[in-house]
Amino acid sequence: xxxxxxxxxxxxxxxxxxxxxxxxxxxxxxxxxxxxxxxxxxxxxxxxxxxxxxxxxxxxxxxxxxxxxxxxxxxxxxxxxxxxxxxxxxxxxxxxxxxxxxxxxxxxxxxxxxxxxxxxxxxxxxxxxxxxxxxxxxxxxxxxxxxxxxxxxxxxxxxxxxxxxxxxxxxxxxxxxxxxxxxxxxxxxxxxxxxxxxxxxxxxxxxxxxxxxxxxxxxxxxxxxxxxxxxxxxxxxxxxxxxxxxxxxxxxxxxxxxxxxxxxxxxxxxxxxxxxxxxxxxxxxxxxxxxxxxxxxxxxxxxxxxxxxxxxxxxxxxxxxxxxxxxxxxxxxxxxxxxxxxxxxxxxxxxxxxxxxxxxxxxxxxxxxxxxxxxxxxxxxxxxxxxxxxxxxxxx
Amino acid sequence: xxxxxxxxxxxxxxxxxxxxxxxxxxxxxxxxxxxxxxxxxxxxxxxxxxxxxxxxxxxxxxxxxxxxxxxxxxxxxxxxxxxxxxxxxxxxxxxxxxxxxxxxxxxxxxxxxxxxxxxxxxxxxxxxxxxxxxxxxxxxxxxxxxxxxxxxxxxxxxxxxxxxxxxxxxxxxxxxxxxxxxxxxxxxxxxxxxxxxxxxxxxxxxxxxxxxxxxxxxxxxxxxxxxxxxxxxxxxxxxxxxxxxxxxxxxxxxxxxxxxxxxxxxxxxxxxxxxxxxxxxxxxxxxxxxxxxxxxxxxxxxxxxxxxxxxxxxxxxxxxxxxxxxxxxxxxxxxxxxxxxxxxxxxxxxxxxxxxxxxxxxxxxxxxxxxxx
Lengths: 396, 373
What we know:
With about 400 residues, chain A is an alpha+beta fold.
């Protein structure tokens, strides 16, 4: 069966986030990376805005070189925490469409949406929806490639950046792929490219038409792999990271609301969704999260860790509702609600206390004493200390 | 009241007691120090009602008397002065004038009757301790005390005078330190009492490197007689938990490990632990110890393996890295013996080689791992 794979790649992610956070940077060459120190800085460019790319600046370039090319650029130190947080928000959007999400990096992922078509429409529609959601929710743009496999999706997402959407239909693979330069060959570094070019191979089409045996003898098993890629064959599945950190769902209201019934209904709905996903994944979590964003975008997140892991909708809702009631500022309009469960696997263990054990023993002792007293009367057993005669008390 | 004194002498004596002044109090007078000039001696007293400290120095006393003045202001003015003599006078209206050859400073004093009185400690119960030893015992214990006032007893250090040893014990319920001074001459009585950590901090600060000092005990107070200073503290009158019962004595399994290596590994790995729990796991194998940390919420994880000696079935045990580091940092032995019996029981830490006259034991409670592990 033909799969539908999406490769979503955020456009100049770090720089775009900086521009979003600091509107005065919009339309300006923003370079996120090391401190250029007036051209003497060490370190590299981590990401730069498209405006900076016009000056020839690109990621991984030494910051000093970037500074020579674009001395008027705005140089910003990376704010990893912020990017991580925004990335989390974006991945949440992916999970709205499929659970088969393979993160490639902080701003890039493969999505297998083959099974989501009936719910959300074909690959292109899903890609459009994802782009729209990212823009609405995070005011950022992404480029998406839609193709029957990961390799083609990855190439496609890169072709019309920024804000691109490129679709490779199963029957257009050759026309799409073969005109491309071999530098677009996934996994082929400078060295491999050199070898291929010496063999007269300039485009992926050249490679596809090249005798497979010769490729194999020149490049070993990699030769076979590249040959397959050149023909657009790539069977690698979208691998969901085994360790799920949290399961959560969010809802943005079409219109901000302060209607408590509406909010409650939506929380129930979100808990049902999260509970269902937990049960589907056979996960139970101990920390329940509530996210609440007011109309002015001020956002609060609250969580509560419970003793026993759960996947039950009712339990999750009870806690979420409790968190909501304790934290919601009554009357304020809400823009977004979110519910999440985390704390799987390595549950935060319980810190044991020395005197818990002692208390435990005391409880046991009390139990035994009570039992004996019930049966034989109150003089049958007493603590030795209570036998000490008054007046002979030891000093201190 | 009138006396003349060199600025540095005055400052030195004041600095000894200044930290006893509480940072926040509703009893205004406690912000003041009481100055008493008598017989060519100046005494300075500060108190927070629980702890009272007196320090003294020589001064040329022209007229005896006493006055209470704000401690912080006095400290600040003395600090800012160059090295000169100053004349300190108080008129019958408690108007204070400090005179130097640069000028004069005036402030309002308060009567000594306003100032809380110094506790009376009978000299009957007296013990003599080595300065060096007590300093060491304080340093090894106070960090392990509890800061939660719910269990008042645990906010102090338990001191025990036995027939022929002197012990100090501190615990917050999660870790415990017991240090025994075996070279101790019994003063003719046995007793146990709890000294607040704050008082021990002041004592440690004022203890010289060498020599001995005397300690006096009354029912409710302890008094440390130190060079040029005396520290009184109220004792904590709460029952101390039966700590002996929680120290297991049947342990067989022993991990021998290089202290520095363990500290550094735990430090590095714990950077990746959940910042709320600081939980780390230790997998103990016959020749190696692997330390893991994982932060599910933020996706960080780390592990390190260091050599060790362990002759038993592999064992997995989890600790709060902060508690563990606190203990390890207060060990001063090249190798340590870490004894564990099961993942839910306390871990015992000993220096590989105890000092000749000492017995040091540290105990840490583990974190119980859930079934998922």
